[in-house]
Amino acid sequence: MTEFSDAESLRTALGEPDTLVWADLLIASQQDAAVLSEVFRFHPLTIEDCVSPVVDPAKIDDYGEYLFMVVQSLTPYVPNEELQAIEVEFYLGPNYVVSCRREQLPAIEHFRVRAHRREAVLEGTPDRLLHALLDAIVDEFLPVVDAVDETIDTIEEQILDHAGTSLLQQIMMVKRNALRLRRATTPQRDIMARLSRNEFPRLIRPESGIYFRDVYDHLVRVEYLIESVRDLADGALQTYLSVVSNRLNEVMRVLTAAATVFLPLTLVSGIYGMNFEENQLPAFGASWGFGAVVGGMVALGVALLAFFRYRRWI
Fold this sequence. Notes:
Blueprint: H1 7-14, E1 21-26, H2 34-38, H3 44-51, E2 59-62, E3 67-74, E4 85-92, E5 96-101, H4 106-117, H5 126-139, H6 141-161, H7 165-196, H8 209-271, H9 289-310
Parallel strand pairs: 1-5
Antiparallel strand pairs: 2-3, 3-4, 4-5
């Protein structure tokens, strides 16, 4: 495996038809993209996509002598944090593959390590090399989906113990991450379908179509799992709302029972607090009157509580 130190050595390698060249570029500025225009002479529109900080949806364009495609990867999954899309551009030519990205991508870094350990990875054809890179990126989706699924399981356990506001935020974050996964995988599935149908015979050999079909199948499986995750997230949200509603009903039932008990007591105290003559209210002027009224109020309250308990309202 030979690494190129300058643009001239890269240009020389490109001039050898039997040499397979993989140029992996980390583009942080317009200067980093100069090799795309000066050495490869790619179309300015494609270079603009490589330099632009905006994450574009996945697509593939045929420029005759080469294919240009945009795919999306995702940042490592961290619970309670939103996934972010990482755009990766690929150029596929007669004897080269160019990958461009604006930040480090674990899938490509791992592939680079494998290429250093096993040079056979880079001894095939450009379309097979492109397949290997795309397959490495797609393989990163499944662990993310599994991690999101585990997060939902944890949330469901916590809901039954304590349905706090933080759990609602976690559920909404899971739903956003599931949507982010779907937006990243669905357009790429269509790209893999086009690559597997021998739509670009000049650069994709017919025997390589089955490899891109395998990546397509992986994306279809990931999509099914994403839909399952979305259903689980919806179920967790409904469970959360049900638990909160049930707890609110319990609180309202207790408060209603307490208010019902104190309502007749308040009525009695209000009657005996009216400004009438002493002889117009029973036991108002007697020495035992206060105790009798208070005792009657306590008995009334106990009777109401016993009735509520008998009817299982509390």
